[in-house]
Amino acid sequence: MMSKVFVAGGSGRVATDLIKDLVADGHQVIAGARHPEKIVQLAGVTPVTLDLHGDVAKIASLMAGADAVYFVAGSRGKDLLQTDAMGAVKTMQAAERAGIKRYIMLSSMYALQPEKWADYPALAAITDYNIAKFFADNYLIHNTDLDYTIVQPATLTEEAATGKVTFGEGDDTTNPIPDVAQVLATVLANDNTIGKVILMRTGDTPIDTAVKEV
């Protein structure tokens, strides 16, 4: 089923692979970023300037006509409150204003379980980021009526795709970025993922199978 998808954070590492996957699946993509010239250039992709510091009405106007919204923006620690926390919330509010129900969030392993952060050095090192994600994920779950899926990967690596994952809790390992993008893209076609938080790690189950079993 072809649809139009809005990707917030469209110039990032995960977004670049996600956009390629969405286009390969037959979707049209509106990709928003502060620097739209950095968005991957492909047929079926419309780059737009997205300012997460801007107002909700402007963000909603960019999303107009989309069937689903992805939030894959990240400030890499430089602008956590306005981008990773409030920027995410604004895209949720904008989606609701634009009448879009489906919303897919890229989060971080154990973002909703702060008691676990100190147990893993990789998480302890990004505590402020986890806090931003904690508030954004909680807002999505408790303060919106969106049909959400939250994907919480372990540490992202720039390795080649394995195409295989393990979902659920476990000792924090890593995820190649293309695998995270593939999970995000696959979730869209699988309504069983609505209302779910998916913790993901590298594993042995093919991504399609794992997503269908969520």
From TrEMBL:
Q: Can you give the residue ranges of the NAD(P)-binding domain?
A: 9-190
- SUPFAM superfamilies the UniProt entry points to: NAD(P)-binding Rossmann-fold domains (SSF51735)
Spell out the InterPro entries in the cross-references: NAD(P)-bd_dom (IPR016040), NAD(P)-bd_dom_sf (IPR036291)
The record's section on PANTHER family has:
FLAVIN REDUCTASE-RELATED, UPF0659 PROTEIN YMR090W
What protein is this chain from? NAD dependent epimerase/dehydratase family protein
Q: Which organism is it from?
A: Limosilactobacillus oris F0423
